[in-house]
Specification:
Belongs to the ABC-2 integral membrane protein family. By secondary structure, this protein is an all-alpha fold. Helix content is about 75%, strand content about 0%. The chain contains twelve helices and no strands. Helix 10 crosses helix 12.
Length: about 270
Amino acid sequence: MIAPAPARRFSDAVVEVLALAGRRLTHLRNVPGRLLAVTLNPLITMLAIGYVFKDAVIVPGSGSYPEFLFPAALMQVGLAGIAPTAIAVATDLNGGLTDRFRSLPIVRPAVLIGHSLGDFLVGLIALGITVASGLLVGGRVHTGVLPLLGGLALLVVFLYAMIWVGILLGLSLRNPEAIDGIGAVATLGLSFLSNAFMSTDRLPSWLRPVAEWNPVSSVTTAVRRLWGTPVDETGFPAQHPGVVVAITLVVTLVLAGGLSFRKYRTIA
């Protein structure tokens, strides 16, 4: 008579997670600028930088600069989502919503998981918009359907990992102004100190190791290799991007997720 209780409890937790994720999507309908905040930077990268500098930047294999930039613009969807996610978490905390959730008979982890899934769906929409825009201005995949799906899957996992980084940032700082500044610096810094816009072989020798070991470079390189975009970089991260990406994403998800749950327990 008591055995079915855990199953019911698990089903209740699933319902709670979905309800909280739906709450995040309702915010998107009420504040459509949330989607714009995630898509604007990648679109600028693809449409403005890719178009303006397409004849000025030399890319590996004398290829097309829009093709070279395409995976980088998609990667930026994940980076661009850090600050909006963190600000939303901080706003909920500062507005007393955490106290309201604490008074409800819901599973504590459901709040953060629901938040992550809601923002994840927003990120997927932004990723789809960026893919369509990138294809219109010259982004291409030369290796078939399976590598295309593999590259998109990698970008999706990177996107979800960055959402948890944003959740941890929001729980830690709780100051929207500070979060906005840090998010902008992180997005620009991680992008420019990488191979997103040009090969690391063209960077100064003292800066090259930083760019090569930047996780953003490994994600971008892995997607470029999957999609048949020429890559001529040296170094372990460039030669084995899949290994570096797998380790980086697993560590990021475990650390950011674990620390977020721990931080939330101390707050709530």
